[in-house]
Amino acid sequence: MSKKVLYTLEYPVRCSPVILYEFLSSASGLQEWFADKVDDRDGIYTFGWNGTDEKAEVIDKEENKFIRYHWLHAPKDEYFEFRIEKSEVTNQTILVIADFADKKDIKDQSQLWEYQVKDLFHRIGS
């Protein structure tokens, strides 16, 4: 089994960090764009896609700054993270997504994120 590598994607977004964070951290916000169904019980999120459920726990967060999830089935050192940054040059809000994938799968995974982020931006009107 090959070791997965961390990769990051950046997306400029026209939205306040407070509103964006709600879409990245709440079950109702995540259900709008990330999964078909999302439930949060005691810090364990259940994400549903096409009848298949995956569970993740929040392992770190700072309100309106970032939230990091760990898939319960994945190795302990792997996670996916949504980080909200501000461009020092343009003062624009930037959504930074960090995730793990096999090197050969990064392009496909990036395209999947691209599709989901477009849905997110549509939902928030960006």
UniProtKB/TrEMBL annotation:
Pfam families: START_2. It comes from the Bacteria. InterPro entries: START-like_dom_sf, START_2. Residues 1-125 form the START-like domain. This is START-like domain-containing protein.
